[in-house]
Each structure stands twice: as C-alpha cells, then as structure tokens.
C-alpha cells in the first residue's frame, strides 16, 4: 500500500503548538500535589482589580485570541486553485454538536459570491401550473420550520481511500457542519406553484457561475427538503449561501445548493456535470454508481486525535467524538482502545436526532500505554459503520466519495496521536 | 388534493424563464439552434480554454483533463475525462455554456459552445474534424462510457451485510499498523504556511481530491 506514495522520512515538525512538550508529567501546574502556593491565587491578578472591555467594544464578537487555532484550514495541494476548493471545520477542537458558522467548512465551485437580499430572486418553473418568481421578502412570509441537520461533503474522508494520508480529524473528517436551520419546506413552494403530477424530479441550481445544478427526486423534495435562510439563529453566512440555500437532510453536501436561484419541476433528471462527471463513485471493475445520495452512518473520535493530543498524563481521560447517519438517528456508538479487538459502548450526550450530529463520550482511566482508538456508529436502521477493509472489498480504491470507514488514531505513551491504518 | 396557497410571488415571464432555464437533457431537450465543428472549435479552445486545459484538452497541472484515459476506469489510477467517463454529451454542452470559461462563465454563444464541444470530442478521437455538431447531429455521437453507470445499489450490496449486532470482544487476534500518515507527511503544518506548499504535488498526486 505505502509504495503507491512517495515515501518520506518521518518528519516530526511539531504539529500542534505545544505538542512537542506534551510529555507525561510536563503539565503539573494546578495539580493537587502542589507544594508551594499558586500565585494565580495568592496574588491579586490584573483582571480581578481593574476593568475589562465595555459593552460597546464588540458589536459582533469573535472568539478570544487564545482560541485562534480553532479555525478553518485548507490543504493547498488538494485542488488546482482556492475558488473551486474545500476547507475544513476544526472538529478536533469543538464539542457538543452545533458548528459555529464562522469556522464551519466551505466548499465552492466558483467562489463564495456576494448576493444581497434586494438582488435575490428565486424562480420555480417547468411542470407547474404557475411559474413563479419570489423575492427574498416573499420567502419570509411563508410558514417556517426549524430543524438541525448535518451537511457532510460527499468527499469527506475521500483522501483516505488509498491509505492514511492527512494527520488530523479536521482534515480527515472536517468537511462537515451541523446547524439549526430556519426555512420554508420546499414542498410549500412547489404547492404554491402548483406542481404537476408528471413532475418526478426537481432540478435545483445556484446563482453562482458554477451553478452546481443537481436533480432531486420529487419524493425527497416533498418530504423534508428546506429552502433555508437562517442558520444557528442568524442569516446564512455569505460562504454558506446567503441569503438562501437548500437543505437536503441526510444527503451528500453537494446537493445542498447555495445561493439557490431556480427550481425546475421535470419529468426526467438533467444528468448535470455534478451528477455524472462528479459525485459518481467508480468501483474496482470500472462501473460507477450514480445518485449515491444518502450519507451512511459514520463517526470519528475528535479527541484525543492528532491535533488534540493528551497533555495531562495518565489517569482520567475523556474520549469524545461525533457520530451521524443520513438514514436516521444514531442509536449507539462503540469505542475501541485496542484497534477493534474489544469494544465498549460509549455514552451519547443526548439521544441521537435524525440526520444530525450526535456527541458521544467514553470516560476512561488511561494507564499511559499505547491505544489504537476507534469508534463505530450504529443508526436506527441497524446499520453498523464498516471498516475501511470492508468498504474496499465492495468498492475498491477509486470511489473518491462516501468513505464512512472506521478511523484509527494511534495514541502514544507521550500523548501524541497519529492517523494510522491497522490490520 | 388542492394544496393551500398563499398568493405569494408573481408570474415568471417567458423572457425570464428563457434567461435562466438553460439545462440540456441527455435526449437533447434544451439544445439551442446553432452549430460548430472541431476546426472552428480549435481556435476558440486555444483562445479561451487551452491556458488551463491544454492545447489538446489534455490538461495543465492540476487543471482538469478533458481528453484521454480511454479504458482506464478499472485501473489503479483511472483517468476520467469527457471521452473516457462522461455518459452524456448533453452534460458537456450544458456545463460549458453555463459555467465555462472558469472566471468568465456564461459568455459563450451557442455556436461557440457547439464548436468547443466538437473540439473536445475530436480530441478524444470520437468524431472527425469536419463533423458538424448541432441540435440535429447531437445524438449521433456515441459516448464510450454511456453504459458505465448503475443506480446506487448500497441497500442491496452493503447495508444488509453491515447490519445487526456487531462483535464486542475477541474480535481479532492481532492489530498491526499497516499505514502511517506521518510517514507520508503531506498535512499542512500549523505554524508555517511555507510548509503547507512544500511537499505536495509529487507525494499527493495519486490521491488528489476530485473537484
């Protein structure tokens, strides 16, 4: 396997700030065994004496500077340029399930366009009684719904098909975000236009140059697809489709068309570029699957992980991560510390919600020995997240998309972790 | 059943629908009047496309290759191009007219688009250079991988196999590390931006992401 790559001498540039000093016992400050009084307690600190910022200092705030490593990152060599490209959510540093919009990943095909509400138009045409044009203000007058869903890029973990390549959960699993959306059911808009029963498909496209047109079967369009204009309580971010995007629960992120400008009811799929050349999955025999819409059950340990090493030495350790499924709610996550020989069922922070991220925890007493950490999601259909070996046996190495394999992190005695594959 | 309506929105005018409704279907529905051949297309391609896609549509650097790769889909590193992979010619016309040239999309006339598509077909050895592509001749072109796609079959081929109570103890005898990301070492480093650009292409090319 490794000879498909140009093998390099291990180069241990410190990956994380401070990771180089992450050895066991190096973080004794604050431990219960302190023999001398802690000056952070015994001496009056500046912040306990004078003023902090006034309430007029930050009309719209950003995270404190000490969190400036919790940011989107890109990988230059993945794509030819940065406007048809991808970046990654810092999932290694987040907790809970809601993704802060400011560091939620981006994927554009012709860049993040600026489209103001006054210039926004949404057209519904095709097999409808009344082809319509809506303004943004029109959309806000339809009855609204709120739902929380994950959006996972079809290519998430795609660089890992051939082996362990990128060293960090942000890079291997960070083409994902999870937000609470407010919007109008697509069904409501289709009914407003009077869709005809001959309409078996809707074709949706964006206002950007790439257009990102995709065909969606009418059954899904009438079920749970949302035309959304708010996420996590506020307007969509520019890079996430401001002012209006499509939300397609459980289905590959490419179909969540941003800056959506047109919905055409059709009796056949368009077979656009994004559902023929791209977002089709080539099997080992050269035949390719098309219309692989659902994202299968998947999970990853976000900490410890390569970007989130153990810095506190042996003893109590929180193992945590995310699980999700495009086919329903997560019902269980198992965690292995020995590369899959034995498994323990983790604790879900709260019951899994349909097509949304679910947080899991396993609280352990770490003995300071090597661990091969894995997580294995199960969803309400009974599906169990497979290993990469199982996926490869069915699909080969060239599928590009839909890699929902079990991830392994090799945690060393010094607390550092590495992306590896194991037998 | 008649659904409730709210009386919101207004009628879309024919000119408005015509301006935005550009999609072309595999059966040719949506194709405009016009025509072009590879001889004309070569000049347009050289002026508007070749800087990224190469003089012969073979691609430059990381930019997409539009020609070549015939019969490589079951190889270790398949080369997926319009010729080797795309099932329908309609997609080429639709995508080029709508979204190309990259950075100057939507500027090609119908004739220019027909000519460019003809040149890409010629570059893939799928037509002769005097073949005139038009609405009338469009479906005469045979796409080599037209039958290369199946509908998503995960429910049958995977889901049943990977469902049910999983193994919890004594699931395998040994665990060996077979691959390490640190050995490949292509992850961008946090502290220097220079390191991110340092290794890339050579090491990473075989597994580069599709865009």
Structural class of chain A: mainly beta
Number of domains of chain A: 3
Strand arrangement in the largest pleated sheet of chain A? 4-3-12-7-8
For the sheet with most strands of chain A, the description reads: 5 strands, mixed
Which segments of chain B are poorly predicted (pLDDT under 50) over 5 or more consecutive residues?
192-211
Q: State the share of residues found in helices of chain A, binned by percent.
A: under 10%
The amount of beta strand of chain A, in percent, is 25-35%
Structure write-up:
Chain A: Keywords: Metal-binding, Molybdenum, Oxidoreductase. Chain A: Residues 114-271 form the Oxidoreductase molybdopterin-binding domain. Chain A: Residues 289-408 form the Moybdenum cofactor oxidoreductase dimerisation domain. The complex is a heterodimer of chains A (423) and B (211). By secondary structure, chain A is mostly beta strands. Chain A folds into three domains: 2-44, no CATH class; 71-152 and 179-289, Sulfite Oxidase, Chain A, domain 2, CATH 3.90.420.10; 298-420, Immunoglobulin-like (Sandwich), CATH 2.60.40.650. Chain A has helices spanning 39-42, 136-139, 169-173, 186-193, 218-223, 388-395; strands at residues 85-86, 107-108, 121-126, 132-135, 145-152, 176-185, 201-206, 214-217, 226-231, 234-235, 245-247, 260-266, 281-282, 288-290, 298-303, 315-324, 330-336, 344-345, 347-348, 358-366, 371-379, 408-411, 417-422. Chain A has a five-stranded mixed beta sheet with strand order 4-3-12-7-8. In chain A, 54% of the residues are buried. Residues 1-30 of chain A have low confidence and may be disordered. Chain B is mostly helical and 211 residues long. A two-stranded antiparallel sheet of chain B has the order 2-3. In chain B, α2 packs across α5 and α4 (89-99) packs across α5. Chain B is extended, with a radius of gyration of 24 Å. Classes of the chains: A mainly beta (423), B mainly alpha (211). At the A-B interface, β1, β3, β4, α4 and β12 of A face β1, α1, α4, β4 and α6 of B.
